[in-house]
């Protein structure tokens, strides 16, 4: 059935929004309502849903485990030993928990990098949101291990058949310090043949830059360009440490950068992300939360606020990353590179949107809806979420959320044993 | 009637909490419940409420008005011309709106700096939380204007009679760039005679430091010490720019520093706040949000998270400001200097606490309750708030909140005319 959202605030105007199938069919005041499911939104504003461009979604089960530790100690004693316990059921419920949190905080699409993709895909479909699921790949920086990587790709061919409106797949070589140049080149060619995105970590810490300079005489960005891994179908998570030449390469190749402010701050990677320089050079900048093991939640509203605040603080310039740019970074800039027609509430676009409750302190007074949403509010204002034309949340409640949390608690106990 | 909170998670143990009058009378499993108001908290954790140590609470009405502008343009065109419209009714409802937002985000006490203190005081009492209300004072950096300041103090003597369990008062010379040294000295002596706190802005921007060095050959901290304005009854908001000698002076005098990370970032003041150095020197570090005109909300949970993340990011050290320290900064460190026995959920303390809903994604799984509260959750988990032994919120709803928001919207229209 079509959905008619009545009398909602959109771009500072009161209007109606008609959703037909999975698209926004019409935006206009006083649309005829016969035969539609009606949503009275007179106390609400419609806003685009977020696109979280860098996650490791099943790691939601690690939330808050091993906070405030030095990076290597955290990985060696808290994360890696327990990841050996992963299985299909843990992945399924961990992914569902992550999807639930995303729905409750206003996100309908994420770009992931992890393992057990068929189980991740099933969970995403069951929850009704969207994902691009990247297969994590490593060769231990030794191209002789390429045959092992190829074996994983054989299995991945079957996974590709699961592609639909909700789930796509990507190729995710982990990082230049775990994957050799030749394997990057092989994987990028593989991805391009199948029109898949390549999603990788890059230039996350000063140590990583120092090491690629030492080993190859190149920055991480230069290194990936050399191995032909950068083009408009590459998305690069972190990029905290970039030279002027790196930024030029990113602009020339058309690669997309994903900023993960919360993770970069919490793990002590640093706050050098050169947002204004990247935008000036014409690079597509997107936003992610990273996994809950490193930054504790999947709340894109909070990540957008922190990104904006830190850019203003580090440049001593309150005009950097104004609210419209910040919201684009968190929505449509990501959707664009994923090839999904969402991230704006406009006629013809896919019907992904949230309705936020304006009768809340954060929207009182409401001089500026976007500002109040990103800078003042939190998820408590998100009343309704629609993805692909389906209502997934009303009254901040998702059907079945209690079972998901119960199962996730069980899975976390099985996952975390040391 | 006494309140008995049954089966609540406190410091990782299930227990009961008995509140008698305005204090926590007993914490123990299986307390007898006869004759008490019962709260079944089996799905909840008890946590201390926040103490917001730097606000301009009626400015909540300016929320989101003039974002992303250069500082002077924002003050000259958006704030100061409209502040001329302030009146008693605007202050009353603006303060109530701020108190409502604080209750919904887990704060029961704030230290303010503004005008129209009797109306602020009435609103705080009507809302049932606590405040230390500082009278903003200026002499235009000209000690010849001291007689005008004294006239304001004459009126203030009557305001002091409004002191009670919920409201105290303080003396708030604005900043070294608006108040002369001799007037600071006069006001500090005045405050000390009456055992009032002195609450001032200090060392907020590099420009302020440059100017006091130029005009007096002293940093802002050295300047205030010279005029005898620093002792253990002084609270200093911002302190973004501190020299090693400044930190030593703060430690020697016992002054309290209030960090306002969101404001410092959003206004482009900078992220130089030297948290670890201050703590190492023994300075009492507390936390504030600043007014909603500069940082958009009064959410201390978010401010605590951002403080912790930025300190880790700026020092490249994930172990800086671990979660227990972060929470102390946002709770008991402030309560201590205000002389209010709150900020910890312990037997004998004042009964100020929140109950957070653990059956939420942010607390799933719950490896670490404090970490999940500060790093993962948001105000949507705050179910119940108790202040001074009275329940002010249940089910995230405050009685009368709809009227407060309606009145605040009217007041904002009257306040903001240019």
Write structural notes for this entry.
Chain A has 418 residues and is α/β, with parallel strands linked by helices. Chain A is built from 16 helices and 16 strands. In chain A, the strands form 3 sheets. Chain A has an 8-stranded parallel β-sheet, sandwiched between helices. In chain A, strand 15 (382-387) and strand 16 form a beta hairpin. In chain A, helix 2 (88-105) runs parallel beside helix 3 (117-127). Chain A starts with a strand and ends with a helix. The model of chain A has no long low-confidence stretch (mean pLDDT 97). The interface between A and B is large, with 74 and 73 residues.
Mean pLDDT of chain A: 97
**What is the rounded Rg of chain A?**
21 Å
As residue ranges, the low-confidence spans of chain A are none
Q: What gross morphology of chain A would you assign?
A: globular
Oligomer classification: homodimer
Q: What portion of residues of chain A is helical? A: 40-55%
* Sheet/helix structural class of chain A: alpha/beta
Total count of helical runs of at least 4 residues of chain A: 16
Main sheet makeup of chain A: 8 strands, parallel
Strand runs of chain A, count: 16
Strand neighbour order, sheet with most strands of chain A: 6-7-8-9-10-11-12-13
Q: Approximately how much beta-strand content do the residues of chain A carry?
A: 15-25%
Q: Whole-Å distance between the termini of chain A?
A: 50 Å
Biggest interface and residues each: A-B, 74 and 73 residues
């Amino acid at each position: 059935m079509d959905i008619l959202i009545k009398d909602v605030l959109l771009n500072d105007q009161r209007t109606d929004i008609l959703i037909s199938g999975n698209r926004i069919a019409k935006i206009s005041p006083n649309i005829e309502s016969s035969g539609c499911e009606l949503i009275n939104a007179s106390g609400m504003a419609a806003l685009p849903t977020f696109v979280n461009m860098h996650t490791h979604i099943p790691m939601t089960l690690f939330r808050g485990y091993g906070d405030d530790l030095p990076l290597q100690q955290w990985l060696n004693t808290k994360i890696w030993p327990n990841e050996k316990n992963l299985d299909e059921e843990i992945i399924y419920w961990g992914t569902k928990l992550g999807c639930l949190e995303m729905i409750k905080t206003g996100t309908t699409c994420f770009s992931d990098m992890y393992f057990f993709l068929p189980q991740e895909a099933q969970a995403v479909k069951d929850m009704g949101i969207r994902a691009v699921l990247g297969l994590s790949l490593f060769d231990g920086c030794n191209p002789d291990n390429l045959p092992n990587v190829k074996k994983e790709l054989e299995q991945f061919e079957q996974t590709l058949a699961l592609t639909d409106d909700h789930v796509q797949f990507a190729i995710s070589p982990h990082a230049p310090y775990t994957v050799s140049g030749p394997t990057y080149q092989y994987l990028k060619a593989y991805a391009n043949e199948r029109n898949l995105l390549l999603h990788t970590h890059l230039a996350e810490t000063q140590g990583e830059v120092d090491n690629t300079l030492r080993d190859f005489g190149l920055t991480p960005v230069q290194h990936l360009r050399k191995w032909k891994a950068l083009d408009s179908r590459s998305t690069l998570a972190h990029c905290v440490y970039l030279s002027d030449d790196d930024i030029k390469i990113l602009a020339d190749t058309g690669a997309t950068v994903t900023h993960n402010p919360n993770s970069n701050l919490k793990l002590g990677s640093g706050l050098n992300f050169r947002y204004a320089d990247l935008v000036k050079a014409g690079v597509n900048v997107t936003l992610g939360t990273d996994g809950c093991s490193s930054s504790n939640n999947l709340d894109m509203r909070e990540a957008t606020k922190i990104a904006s605040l830190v850019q203003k603080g580090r440049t001593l310039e309150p005009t950097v990353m104004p609210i419209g740019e910040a919201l684009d970074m968190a929505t449509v800039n990501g959707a664009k590179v994923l090839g999904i027609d969402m991230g704006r509430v406009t006629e013809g676009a896919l019907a992904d949107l949230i309705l936020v409750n304006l009768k809340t302190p954060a929207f009182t007074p409401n001089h500026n809806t976007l500002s109040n949403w990103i800078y003042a509010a939190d998820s408590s204002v998100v009343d309704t979420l629609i993805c692909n034309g389906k209502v997934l949340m009303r009254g901040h409640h998702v059907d079945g959320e209690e079972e998901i949390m119960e199962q996730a608690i069980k899975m976390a106990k099985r996952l975390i044993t040391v």
